[in-house]
Amino acid sequence: IGRIPVISALQSLSEDALMDILTKPKNALIKQYKKLFDMEGVELEIDEEALRAVVKEANNRGTGARALRSMLEGVMLNIMYELPSQKNISKCIVTRDVVKKNADPVYIYKERKQTA
After folding, report:
1. Contact 87, 40 (CB under 8 A)
2. Distance between CA 72 and CA 74 in Å, rounded?
3. Taking the model in full, what pTM does it have?
4. Are 58 and 64 in contact (CB under 8 A)?
5. Which residues, in sequence order, are CB contacts of 105 under 8 Å at separation 6+?
6. Do 55 and 16 meet the contact criterion of CB atoms below 8 Å apart?
């Protein structure tokens, strides 16, 4: 039995579809990163604009949903590497500048208890 080649034309995913892939499934990429940060005791927040920037770049590359993981990895790798060495961080906010300009994320620190 031989193989029959199948050629099919596919439509590229819209930005809304890519956004849904990034956020809605049970094991969505954003949920996975939030869980990883939660294991470090840090709450992760990713702005809507940052997500749109990732989706727009993935759409520009033309690789669809496959580009989402690699793009997020590129953005989050340095943050995840530096996070354990920084103390008293309660929240990490990833903004559009972090995605577009490789800027540092916004860190919110825990308040230190003052001794009397």
Report:
1. no
2. 5
3. 0.82
4. yes
5. 79, 92, 93, 94, 95, 98
6. no
DSSP code of 86? S
Residue 24 DSSP label? S
- How many angstroms separate the CA atoms of 85 and 66, rounded? 31
Q: Please tell me the total number of residues recorded for the chain in this structure.
A: 116
Query: In degrees, to the nearest 5, what angle opens at C-alpha 95 toward C-alphas 78 and 89?
Result: 60
User: In which band, very low, low, confident or very high, does the pLDDT at 77 lie, cut at 50, 70 and 90?
Assistant: very high
Contact (CB, 8 A) for 45 and 95: no
Please tell me the distance from the alpha carbon of residue 85 to that of residue 90, in angstroms, as a whole number: 13
Two tokens, residue 37: 């940060």
